[in-house]
Amino acid sequence: MQEENADREGRTGHTGAGSPETDAGDSSERETAEDILSLYLEELKAIRPLTEAEEAEALQKAGEGDRGARERLIESYLMPSLSIVKDFIGGEMGVSEMIGVSNLSLVTAVEEYIGRSKAAGEGQQEEETGLSGYVRAAVRAALKQAETEERCSRQRAETVAERVNQLMEAARVMATELGREASPEELAERLRTPEEEVRALLKMSVQAME
Description:
The chain is mainly alpha-helical. Helix content is 72%, strand content 0%.
């Protein structure tokens, strides 16, 4: 499979109405992401899906340790799993990231299902109704989780950036008042913030300028 080599798309993260320029930019980014995904999916059309009988046989062989059967099962679900990515375009992640999440969760889901099928064959009741449903649910859940984590990570980064800006403004004001640079202790007192946090923010601001 040719590796998807597109650069990470710009994130939208846009809520509510915006300027025409911003809306046009968001639309353009979404179209670009959809184009990249469409090209990737086009490549996968060459892969013939397994019939129900072939899938059952591949599951049995994979459960017996046949790596070729395992790879064929994964290959046959690349198209369905990546089609789910379309529902998440325009969200928190770029299409390259989503393809990576989709592929990884697909492999994990197939391996888990092979294990469940093997256990069912040994007399344990199989909980899932089919590999297709299992894979689709796993991929969608993985994309939702990754999107949530990305959103939280971005929010944390924005909060830290805001705190650094507040610190720099306080440092500027105090330098004017004192005629010298304020110490971390003085900044902590002015901002009513623990000194350890002030020192950490100062370190971040220095690293950002390097």
